[in-house]
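Researcher: Structure prediction, please.
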Amino acid sequence: MHNQAFPNGNPDQLNPSPSLDSVPNTPGPGCPSNIILPTSAKRSEAYFEFLKTKQRRRVESGFDALVLNPALFDFQKYIVTRALKAGRYAIFADCGLGKTIMQLEWARHVAEHTSNPVLILAPLAVSGQTIREGERFGYLVNRISDGVFQDVPGIYITNYDQLDNVDCGAFAGVVLDESSILKNFEGKTRNAIIQNFQNTPYKLACTATPSPNDPMELGNHAEFLNVMSRNEMLSMYFVHDGGETAKWRLKGHAIKDFWRFVSTWSVMLNKPADIGYPMAGFDLPPLNLIEKQIKTPKRDNGRLFNDTAVSATDFNLELRSTRQERMHLAAEIVNASAENFIVWVKQDGEADLLKKLIPGAVEVRGSDKREVKEERLLGFANNEFRVLITKSKIAQFGLNFQNCHNQVFASLDFSFEALYQSIRRSYRFLQKEPVNIYLITTDTMQNVIESVRRKKEDFESMQNHMTAACNLDVLKESTVMNKLKDCLEYLSDQEFESENCVIKRGDCVQLIKSIPDESIGFSIFSPPFAELYTYSDSIEDMGNSKDYQEFLTAFRFLVDDLFRVMWRGRNVAVHCMDLPIQKGKEGFIGLRDFSNMIRSVFEGAGFIYHSRVTIWKNPVTEMQRTKALGLLHKQVKKDAAMSRVGLPDYLLVFRKPGDSDHPIKCNITVDTWQMWASPIWDDIDYGKTLNGRAGRGEQDEKHICPLQLDTIERAMSLWSNPGDLVYTPFAGVGSELFEAIRLGRRGVGHELKQSYFDLAVKNIQAAEAARNQQKLF
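Model: Predicted structure follows.
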């Protein structure tokens, strides 16, 4: 039964993008006999099938719940029902909302439905707590010790650190308790979980509300649940700014779509009312944050006063310098009361001192054996002793300590998440007493408490916004999501025609079909940079691609028709660059050979690779703009193996085979030709572009880079005649059309984005006015 395909539960997999190579076809005019192109009708049919795969409607792959445990609250029943119906689901519920009983009920249903075992993975000590909760609510939960378990249907549980000893293929379902363990996308545990349960039919991830500032956590959850890869999510909804490779933010136009997307595979709530279940008993008690600042003795530092701020580098040194004062104050607070206390520390030396100062205190240390840690943590939850001393990284996740409403942070640091999670061990729903949190700082570490306070305010504000946005469709009982706007077979009737130019708004892959065969004398454009930037939320936007393969599939549809419409013997010039691979997205730093990908598509469509021009760019300007690691001087001194040269632009030129019926007469001087014949153009003025700012929508991203007019002028002068028809499928703000009119050519262009189209029309009108004025005088 191991590694079997479980019946009645394997989620439908998305069909791969249709391959043009698989479509029967016939050669086009001027095409070599060994290059076969699809017929127009079959290309259209294949293209619409491809667009449907880009929609990616969420397919629910689970089953309907049977009789639910009556111990569940109504909001918990609703969540469990949704999770079972989805098959693969995430429950982002704040501390104390009953994630344990919900995951046990989910696991029971999956085990009974599939007649196979279901595994729960939990942090240290949470396993024993879950087994105890199961007994309370009527569930039999079997502990797996060192990989040994009875291979029969039922619920099993083990700790994350035992994952290597478990046959993951034996389970029909898996539950991740405290699934925030997936946060670190480079982490060994995260990768092992995703890989080991890649084909598990039923999956449930349970954790508190994820950090709004960390899209990585949501991306890793989506990847674990087989909804979407983390890289695909970042490409589709997030933008990466500058050289800070770990920082991503939601694209302006994608905010609403992103939260709709998240709401199709998860529920997110801070309280039952967030999903429409107002109820008594789920109101948190008062939380009292009590700051205790120690004034340290004047130090012999040659200054009038001690420093009031500490850097992250000097933080541990400052902790050691102030250990005595802080630990004595912590002990004084604890010893003045007879109630239970948790004392959080950062260093083992602090714990050693506290055990001497607080009678009966018990420590849980990282070096303790696993069994000892669990025994002591559960012992504190059972009131076997009054004071627990430990570190946040040991006990901040999953444990229920409602028996304690007093905590002392004897060593506060910059980590708001650790502080938040530690507080929530006591400050949970069903906590009856006001929770007192003592924050001990010193006058030399004032910036630490200020940083924590600021992060707390930002977190609460963004958390409320995120929860409301995510649950908008949940409250409406919506379970279907469109990845992008439903605009299949979209053709706009917007068109602007001047004396020398026509521009249409819409999808270039569809609009190019209206261009007659063998009618274009020259084509020049800069394609979207695959997954790097998304220019609109239209499903036809090639920038709206999950990865480079999806982009290249769409691009091939365009290039096939571009081959059809070009005069034989004439050229297409494509402006592009190689693209950086970002560590914050793919785990390593490198370059992607985007120019060669484009070349492969053109050659596959029948074009001849004709020429490549390297366009020089200033590496200092690139370094200042992107903060790329490889361009920083400090990296050369640190490890020059990671340093690189700047990224130039390329102008790739492709020629349609066949003898030309329209030879090009380029009237330039010998001196000019010798300069233009250089493989490197180092005199292109990067500041000479049409102004694209007016084409930006309110929520557009930073990347609006019109093609340089010098590049267009030179290419158009070399590879077209006056009066030729010049085509650009990605017209943008109209740069290519503007230059075509100015240089005595005619232009035809297509542009999908409304604001770009509107600005392109204005630029075309300006070019026509200038051309008419030139004729007049």
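Model: Residues 446-470 form the longest helix (25 residues).
Researcher: Thanks, that helps.
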